[in-house]
Each structure stands twice: as structure tokens, then as C-alpha cells.
């Protein structure tokens, strides 16, 4: 039985805990929870940026989505971007993390080079890349022409515009994913590898039976983070191609921006945003279950 002093102690501890999490919960409520609820409400209305002519339309905005070919095109582009960039990004980050796991001045320098794009604004990176690969005055295009390689106009090609966005996205986020994977690798005890060496295991055996299984929770987190950020891709597409050519790089977030701030159709933009939220959740929930399963197996 807990006496009165013990009860008072637990009450004080609980109050202290509430006070510690209160600022975070307040910020979360103001900037995440409340806007999320408002987005659901706005998606059932029609109004412009000045909140004029507000009218309740129920599910009309969602019904309109079903018949909107541009919405489906943006969804297709977003899914294609995600399906391409996530595995490439995770695999490259995994091998880069393994290669740079050892602590030395050289690896520390290379890690910082890889990580540098992650701390730079995507807008700045997109502007830089748009200059580098511009067909008329881009330095990369000039270099390739000088050595006799004919590169197509990447930014105005319906075939190469989206792969170019994928390359920019990988280049921007690879270092951040690599650092997370390195942290996971450092959490694997050297004892496992020492025992494996005594049993005659080679490099591939250690990678397959020790590194990958022990790193699976970290890899799952990296995959979930990559999926969520890929579904929210906007900056480089808007800056470099504006969704072109012929809407081949337009994503769902850009379509939200187009309806909200270019067409001033805030209700329909909110419906698209809510649909994007649902798609992201449906894509992430199975990955979270895999992450939970891996944590339980390792615990």
C-alpha cells in the first residue's frame, strides 16, 4: 500500500511531467492539431484567400477530385517520385554509412561533405541545380558538350524532367539518411562480428546475418521518413520546373499550392491536402507496424 507521503510524491512527479510536456503540446496543438482540424472543415467549403463567399458544400470537393484528371496526374507523379527515390536513397545511404562508419579525420571530413546539402535550404539547392543543368548556360551541359557527350534538355524533357528531380532529391537528403544509419551501425556491438569471424563468416555473411537484421529498426525509420518527405515534395519541383513540362513533374503539394494561391480555391486545395494526408497515412501505417515488429524481435 502507498501511504499519503507516497501519493503526494507521485502527484508532484505527475505535475512536473505535465509542466515539462505542456510547452511542446501547446506548440503541437497550435501548429499541427488545430490546422489539421481546420483543413478538414475547410475541405467541406468553398471560399477564396480572403475568406469571402464562404459556402458549405459537403463532400462536393472530394467528388470533384474523383473526376479531376490533373489530380490523378499529380498523384501518379508523386507516387512515381516516391517509389523511385526511397529505395535508391536508402540503399545509397546504407552503403555510404558502412563505408564511413570508422572514426577518422578523413571519414569525418567526408561525412561533413555528404551532410552539407541536408542543412542547406532546398530552394537554394534547386536554384543552384537549375543553373548547373540549364541547357543554354549550365556549366555541366557546357562540360559535357566539350567532351563530345550530347545531353538532352533535362528541364524541358517530358522523359528526363522527373528523373532529374529524383537525382536532386537524393543528393539533398542522402547525407541526413547516412548519418542516421551510421548512428544505428554504431549501436551494433562489435561482439557479434567477433563471434562471426571466429565461426568463419565472411564480409557478406556478416552484412547479411548481423548488420541488416540488427539495423532493421533504423532502416525502417529511414524508409518511413523518406516516404513521408517524398509525398510532400514541392520545393525543387516548383523552383526548377514549375511542374512542367506538360505537368510531368507536378506533385500533389504543388497542386495544392496552385489551387490555393494561384486559383484562390482554398476549399478544393484543402480537400487535396486532406487526401494527401490520408494517402501518406495509408502508406506509412504498414511501415510503422514493421518497425514495431522489428523492435519487439530485437528486445
Brief summary:
The chain has 299 residues and is mostly helical. It has 12 helices and 2 strands. It is globular.
Account of the protein in words:
With 299 residues, the chain is mainly alpha-helical. Helix content is 74%, strand content 1%. It has twelve helices and two strands, in the order H-E-E-H-H-H-H-H-H-H-H-H-H-H. The protein has helices at 4-42, 60-66, 69-99, 105-115, 122-132, 139-146, 161-186, 190-198, 203-231, 235-240, 252-262, 266-298; strands at 45-46, 55-56. Strands 1-2 form a two-stranded antiparallel sheet. A hairpin with an 8-residue loop joins strand 1 (45-46) and strand 2. Helix 3 (69-99) packs across helix 7 (161-186) and helix 11 packs antiparallel against helix 12 (266-298). The longest helix has 39 residues, at 4-42.
Amino acid at each position: 500500500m502507498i501511504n499519503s507521503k507516497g501519493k503526494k510524491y507521485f502527484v508532484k512527479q505527475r505535475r512536473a511531467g505535465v509542466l515539462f510536456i505542456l510547452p511542446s503540446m501547446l506548440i503541437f496543438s497550435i501548429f499541427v492539431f488545430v490546422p489539421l482540424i481546420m483543413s478538414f472543415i475547410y475541405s467541406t467549403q468553398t471560399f477564396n484567400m480572403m475568406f469571402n463567399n464562404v459556402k458549405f458544400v459537403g463532400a462536393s470537393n472530394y467528388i470533384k477530385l474523383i473526376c479531376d484528371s490533373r489530380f490523378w496526374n499529380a498523384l501518379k507523379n508523386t507516387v512515381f517520385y516516391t517509389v523511385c527515390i526511397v529505395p535508391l536513397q536508402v540503399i545509397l545511404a546504407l552503403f555510404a554509412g558502412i563505408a564511413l562508419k570508422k572514426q577518422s579525420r578523413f571519414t569525418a571530413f567526408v561525412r561533413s561533405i555528404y551532410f552539407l546539402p541536408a542543412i542547406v535550404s532546398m530552394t537554394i539547392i534547386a536554384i543552384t541545380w537549375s543553373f548547373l543543368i540549364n541547357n543554354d548556360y549550365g556549366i555541366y551541359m557546357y562540360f559535357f558538350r566539350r567532351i563530345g557527350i550530347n545531353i538532352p534538355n533535362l528541364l524541358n524533357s517530358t522523359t528526363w524532367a522527373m528523373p532529374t528531380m529524383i537525382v536532386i532529391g537524393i543528393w539533398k537528403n542522402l547525407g541526413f539518411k547516412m548519418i542516421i544509419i551510421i548512428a544505428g551501425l554504431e549501436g551494433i556491438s562489435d561482439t557479434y562480428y567477433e563471434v562471426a569471424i571466429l565461426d568463419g563468416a565472411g564480409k557478406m555473411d556478416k552484412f547479411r546475418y548481423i548488420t541488416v537484421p540488427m539495423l532493421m529498426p533504423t532502416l525502417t525509420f529511414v524508409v518511413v521518413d523518406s516516404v513521408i518527405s517524398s509525398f510532400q515534395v514541392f520545393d525543387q519541383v516548383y523552383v526548377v520546373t514549375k511542374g512542367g513540362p506538360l505537368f510531368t513533374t507536378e506533385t500533389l503539394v504543388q497542386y495544392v499550392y496552385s489551387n490555393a494561391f494561384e486559383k484562390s480555391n482554398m476549399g478544393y486545395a484543402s480537400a487535396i491536402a486532406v487526401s494527401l494526408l490520408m494517402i501518406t497515412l495509408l502508406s506509412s501505417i504498414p511501415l510503422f507496424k514493421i518497425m514495431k515488429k522489428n523492435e519487439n524481435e530485437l528486445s
